């Protein structure tokens, strides 16, 4: 504080971003991919690609057919969830919980037949990495995410204060100017999506507010923390024990008829049943989350009567629900979803450029004071930068390749998809340690290019759904995944070339003879 308020905020901006910057980059990257997790999951299960959206049969016929097949499996289930077909996934998915075990089935909505797709982590891998990390308990992972998100919010606010000419500098981009160019890129990527960055960070904190501010909830509800959500959103008490008295479920046709009367212009998206086939069963029919921030629903008892409406019950709950929908982009159509995706890419670049900028500034100071000495901390930052940024660009698309290359009947197949991701990421860490810093950068980006380009090639060799076929059939859900992979391959190839060109081009170095140039190349 002795240097003045703005200078102290610059210090806070630097260290709040640097300490968690590597983890923050991973969170931004996986969160950006999570906006298309339904499409990624659909791509990773080629057994579903022949299924089309139902056209002739109505929902009641489809659901009655599904319930007939489910009845012996859910006899003692405590919870049942049905996800109806949508534009993002044409299949009908059923998940249930019975006798402390989870079950799930996928149905063709046109025939009612069960489909057995390959086991995969799908796009949910990126989603879980984004908000909970992997291999950690849900509580531990989310607490870490809370701390990182809070640091991100501090870095955003202090960044606005520090760069007093932030909007003026937005229109200035000086290329090939070293540190100045990185600063310009950092500012532009931060300002161009600043409203998105503030929204996504603050809403992320609100979603997890119960983890780092639990005291109000504990004071009112004690150990029954779920009560707050039941009261706020009129959700049935899913912790209630089953009555033990069997009673058949009401006709799905009658429930749909009442649902359509209450919500004549809404589409049914989810059916959730608590304690099915019991006298105290509760059935929740929820509207489609597309194009709406606050989806609604109706709660029925086992006599088929409307009990209540699922909705935010007060201003606090409505605010939390709104921010949660904004963060996840549930309501977004494809145009807005792509805007989310591009804003996430800007956030990735903002984080990466901030990490690189810190190292360049420190390295420039070190050359003036101790040109032949490199502290361990600087070498550590070098390794972490290469591993987190370039290494993650290799590891993330490898999940899609692993999905196509692993045997479909492999035991614990979905776990191995995640394991191999971390193995590959760990190998990039080892590579960053043993290779010179500047070589590791462009070599790993070149490897990321190959990995992304391999996705459509391996897919065409292992399945019947080539990129050309997906485009000609108008299946843009499949084609978009591979087109994005090709786009990123071009981006990584350009980055690899630019880094290589910067390292070895004579114009970027002061050389007075061919011998000095040869020595420079050998050093690089």
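Sequence proposed for the structure above (524 residues):
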């Amino acid at each position: 504080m002795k240097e003045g308020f703005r200078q102290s905020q610059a210090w806070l901006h630097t260290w709040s971003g640097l300490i968690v910057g590597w983890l923050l980059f991973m969170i931004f990257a996986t969160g950006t991919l999570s906006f298309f997790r339904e499409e990624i999951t659909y791509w990773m299960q080629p057994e579903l690609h022949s299924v089309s959206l139902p056209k002739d049969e109505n929902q009641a016929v489809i659901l009655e057919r599904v319930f007939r097949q489910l009845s012996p499996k859910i006899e003692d289930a405590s919870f049942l969830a049905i996800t109806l077909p949508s534009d993002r996934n044409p299949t009908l998915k059923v998940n249930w919980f019975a006798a402390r075990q989870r079950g799930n089935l996928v149905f063709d909505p046109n025939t009612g037949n069960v489909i057995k797709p390959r086991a995969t982590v799908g796009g949910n891998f990126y989603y879980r990495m984004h908000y909970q990390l992997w291999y950690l308990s849900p509580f531990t992972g989310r607490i870490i995410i809370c701390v990182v998100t809070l640091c991100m919010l501090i870095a955003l606010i202090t960044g606005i204060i520090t760069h007093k000419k932030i909007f003026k500098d937005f229109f200035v981009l000086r290329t090939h100017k070293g540190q100045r160019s990185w600063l310009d890129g950092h500012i532009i990527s931060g300002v161009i999506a600043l409203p998105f960055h503030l929204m996504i960070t603050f809403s992320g904190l609100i979603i997890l507010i119960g983890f780092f501010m639990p005291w109000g909830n504990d004071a009112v509800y004690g150990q029954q923390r779920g009560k707050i959500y039941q009261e706020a959103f009129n959700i049935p008490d899913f912790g209630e024990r089953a009555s033990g008295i069997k009673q058949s479920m009401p006709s799905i046709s009658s429930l749909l008829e009442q649902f359509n009367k209450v919500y004549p212009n809404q589409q049914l998206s989810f059916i959730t049943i608590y304690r099915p086939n019991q006298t105290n069963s509760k059935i929740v029919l929820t509207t489609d989350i597309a194009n709406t921030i606050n989806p609604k629903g109706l709660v029925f008892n086992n006599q088929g009567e409307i009990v209540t409406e699922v909705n935010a019950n007060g201003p606090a709950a409505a605010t939390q629900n709104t921010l949660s929908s904004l963060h996840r982009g549930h309501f977004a159509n494809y145009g807005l979803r792509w805007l989310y995706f591009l804003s996430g890419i800007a956030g990735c670049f903002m984080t990466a450029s901030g990490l690189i900028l810190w190292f360049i500034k420190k390295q420039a100071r070190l050359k003036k004071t101790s040109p032949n000495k490199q502290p361990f901390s600087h070498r550590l930052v070098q390794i972490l930068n290469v591993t987190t940024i370039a290494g993650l660009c290799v590891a993330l698309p490898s999940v899609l390749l692993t999905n196509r290359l692993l045997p479909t009947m492999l035991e614990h197949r979905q776990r191995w998809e995640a394991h191999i991701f971390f193995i590959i990421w760990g190998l990039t860490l080892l590579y960053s340690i043993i290779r010179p810093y500047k070589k590791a950068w462009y070599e790993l980006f070149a490897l990321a290019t190959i990995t992304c380009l391999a996705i459509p090639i391996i897919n065409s060799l292992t399945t019947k759904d080539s990129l050309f076929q997906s485009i000609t059939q108008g299946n843009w859900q499949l084609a978009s995944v591979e087109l994005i992979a090709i786009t990123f391959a071009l981006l990584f190839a350009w980055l690899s070339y630019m880094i290589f060109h910067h390292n070895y081009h004579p114009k970027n170095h002061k050389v007075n003879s061919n011998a000095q140039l040869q020595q420079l190349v050998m050093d690089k």
